Amino acid sequence: MTADFTRRAMLATTAALTMTLALTHASPAQADFPDRSITLVIPFAAGGSTDLVGRVVAERMSQDLGQQVIVQNVGGAGGSLGATQVAEAEPDGYTILMGTVATHALNPLILKQKPYDPVADFAPVSLLVLVPNVLAVHPDVPADTVQELIDLAKAEPLAYASSGNGTPLHLSGELFKSMAGVDITHIPYKGSGPALTDVLGKQVPIIFDNLPSASGHVSSGKLKALGVTTAERSPAFPDVPAIGETLPGYETYSWNALFAPAGTPPEVVTRLADAAKAAMADPKVAEQMATFSATIVASDPAALAEHVAAEMAKWEPVVKGANVSMD
Amino acid sequence: MTSPTTDRSEAIAGALLMLAAGFFAWQTMDLRIGTALRMGPGYFPAILSGILFLLGLLVFLKAFRSTATSEAMGAIAWRGLLFILPAPVFFGLTVRGLGFVPALFLTALIAAMASMRMKLHWALLLAFLVTLFSTLVFSYALGLPFRRFGPWLPF
Amino acid sequence: MEFLSNLALGFSVASSLENLTFCLIGVLLGTLIGVLPGIGATATIAMLLPITFQLEPVSSLIMLAGIYYGAQYGGSTTAILINMPGESSSAVTAIDGYQMARKGRAGIALAVAAIGSFFAGTVSTFLVALFAPLLTTVALKFGSAEYFSLMVLGLIMSVALAHGSVLKALAMVVLGLLLGMVGSDIYDGTPRFTMGITAYADGLNFVAVAVGVFGIAEILRNLEDEHDRQVLTSHVGRLWPTREDFRAIVGPVLRGTGLGSVLGILPGGGAILASFASYTVEKKLSKNPGEFGHGAIAGVAGPESANNAGAQTSFIPLLTLGIPANPVMALMIGAMIIQGIVPGPNVASEQPGLFWGIIASMWIGNLMLVVLNLPLIGLWVKLLKVPYFILFPIIMAMCSIGVYSVASNTWDLYAVAFFGLLGYVMGKLRFEPAPLLLGFVLGPLLEEHLRRALILSRGDAATFINRPISLTLLLLAVGVLVLVFLPAIRKSRDEVFTESEG
């Protein structure tokens, strides 16, 4: 397969223009979908966890579909720009979105002016992975369990760092506050990296972070993980309890899912979902997902539709309660 | 010793600064100011617009007591403004619809027209070569994710 | 000695034929994208990320690092030749480098930049190897209060960037700060100055602003009077610096290296300040500060060294903490994760071959760059002989692609046109673009850290004075302020005297 690609690339370079014309001239019959390259829009900057999941999946899906799946980063406005671009794209399956909990649950709830409708504007394809978040503290913080942290927060003013206002991590923190009945000052940062730096440097005691970005610091002891945000413990850190063990019902996670624009023919959606499923079944992909501490789901389109509805229902009271809104 | 004169370009500079400050101040009006210790989104911009206005005022006032010999503003590149500035705008408007190849060709062509030394046939050739080079390098070799020919084209 | 054995391990990893090849590919590619105006390293590395899945982790990281510093290197080439800085750091190089080019000293400027960068790269690589863990603890001492004080110091220094009116330079800094505010407020997400355009919610794109106020404005200036003005000197002069040139750059290179190495360690924008700070220092120390802005060789040598030293030491937080200092580093972290390496403090102990191999490859890459670029200088300089009316449409096309490739955001292209116009008008009114750009870069950081420091101290402004590092920085700022304004005050008093006499 790889050899095939190199040959094709060389061919393309030598006969650049003829090749392109030939490709674009091909008939758009759905039966032979895909007959040209597919653009996977990642609504965040390159290098983040969504970007990495997207690139790994795109690479593997290209093999299955026999056409290149090209990753395009359209970052900005918490993922809204990229999502809007796909919502407005031709519903032919050649432009698809790597959606997340932000684009398909939080942003539509937070934004006052809604640039797109997460349900009506998209055809769900497949829920790919769930990524746990983690509640961690600087090792000097005198709390070793979630309960001790709650007690500490009741006794003295504390602050927690997150990757930004309105992000899943911020809202994980807000949900924690409301369920534990404590007040902890939220300190937003521009991304996970700077937030982590300040917690490592003891500028801020607590952080809600994605498990993949915090895990190196947890295993080296520079951060003390008090709980993961998923309902069950993460296989990567079996000693770290789930927050839900202390606060029953507490459950948040980040997720990544593929969406096509609404109106994409069902056979095309199915073809994409099958390719995604095949990609996620690849042992090498599974191994890479394990380094992200991501749980593979690889659902069918209907299950993703239900998932989006459930997530929106779950987050609505949190968003309202935390009084987070953006124009 | 030259006696103080009015430096027209300095006066314009000061006036434009005050205008810019006014614009930012007007845009800040809708923002929550907050307090010095718990700043809202409008606090910092409000202070900065104030400072900018003061600086503009100083520049403006100094213009009337200028000791420096006023430099002529020189010619204005009308032709350049007319063709150079629209070039990236045109690329932005068409790169998705027409696709990378035609959008870039026309962008280079528009930019080329900014020089009066440029002849049309040379401009066409130049635009063609630039497009060929960029398509090979960026689209094929580096694999930038742009559609080469977009949905606006019939084929 | 542990240090020597570590370094030996690193060189044995980095000098394997395979890794040398990837290092070479990296720096070649980096140089190529660096010299194409507007094309940044981020887009390229993002494109190459999937290719690195197939490589050994150390090879892929060596290649990506090569692209990064190769691009930094190439970026100064465009800054010098066509006044088109692609990164915040080369904006400073453009000030005097482009003036040198206009005076037929492009070759010398390029050579000085190459030599300064190589020297700085060598020194800072050894610093990284020797002190990385120690320096990390220093970097972690920097909280928001310290960063705020550092930014204040940087802003005050920026006034020295001006070679004209200090008042107008200040106005440009403030305007830059305001332009930096465009986008969503990070504390509550309120959009500011976006005119309702969601595409600007994350702020204006640096490349768009820099390309506009420097590059496009310069093209417009060159098109003003095509009949009676030879745009670029076709006589290119000598390529190699003279003995006097060498003597003139020793101090600036040494000081630039020091400044860059220190500031590069700070993950929150320290590297941005390095080249600006070096320029300020050189101008202050120079015997003829009037030369600055008109092709001072120290104004190229110092900032270029600082910028490259900063680029190397900014790997420290990445390697020791797994924390990215800029988008390129974020991509490298991504490459590590994909390879199954969890970035964090354990990388050095668990993967010593990888850790030291990357450090050793940084030096090898710098050596390759200097060997590669010195002969290329002749070629670049020939580029100036290309008639301008052929050169600038090419530049416009490259800029359009480059700016669009950053985030596929068409509004960034409209911003290029707007800032081109702004830059042109500014030039007509004798405003300078460099202070504006510095304000633009520092503005968001200044506000972010000020507000965060105050939230963390629960509204106690004394936090800036109670924290020793912050206090030191603020005192330094006051010192610089006195140094900058004392001569200006004295001068204006002299003016008053001469006026009254006249």
Note down, in words, how this protein is organized.
The complex is a heterotrimer of chains A (327), B (155) and C (502). With 327 residues, chain A is of the alpha/beta class. Helix content of chain A is 45%, strand content 19%. The longest helix of chain A has 22 residues, at 301-322. With 155 residues, chain B is an all-alpha fold. Chain B has helices spanning 8-28, 43-63, 78-84, 86-94, 100-112, 120-141. The longest helix of chain B has 22 residues, at 120-141. The termini of chain B are far apart. Chain C is mainly alpha-helical and 502 residues long. Chain C has one domain (2-501). Chain C has helices at 2-14, 17-35, 41-52, 57-82, 90-102, 106-140, 144-158, 166-180, 206-222, 243-264, 270-285, 298-313, 315-321, 327-338, 347-350, 352-383, 388-407, 410-428, 433-456, 463-466, 468-501; strands spanning 183-184, 191-192. In chain C, helix 9 (206-222) packs antiparallel against helix 19 (433-456) and helix 10 packs parallel to helix 12 (298-313). The longest helix of chain C is centred in the N-terminal third of the chain and has 35 residues, at 106-140. The termini of chain C are far apart. The model of chain C is unreliable at 495-502 (pLDDT under 50). Chains in contact: A-B, A-C, B-C. Chains B and C meet through helix 1, helix 2, helix 3, helix 4 and helix 5 of B and helix 3, helix 8, helix 9, helix 17 and helix 18 of C.
Number of strand segments of chain C = 2
Structural class of chain A: alpha/beta
Q: How many extended strands of chain A? A: 10
Low-confidence stretches of chain A: 1-29
Q: Roughly what is the average pLDDT of chain A, rounded to an integer?
A: 85
Mean pLDDT over the full residue set of chain C = 83
> Could you say how many structural domains of chain A there are in total?
2
The value of Rg of chain C in angstroms is: 22 Å
Largest sheet of chain A: 10 strands, mixed
Rounded to the nearest angstrom, the distance between the terminal CA atoms of chain C is: 72 Å
Give the neighbour order of strands across the main sheet of chain C. Answer: 1-2
Helix fraction of chain A, binned, reads 40-55%
User: Cα distance, first to last residue of chain A?
Assistant: 47 Å
Shape of chain A from CA axes? globular
Shape of chain C: globular
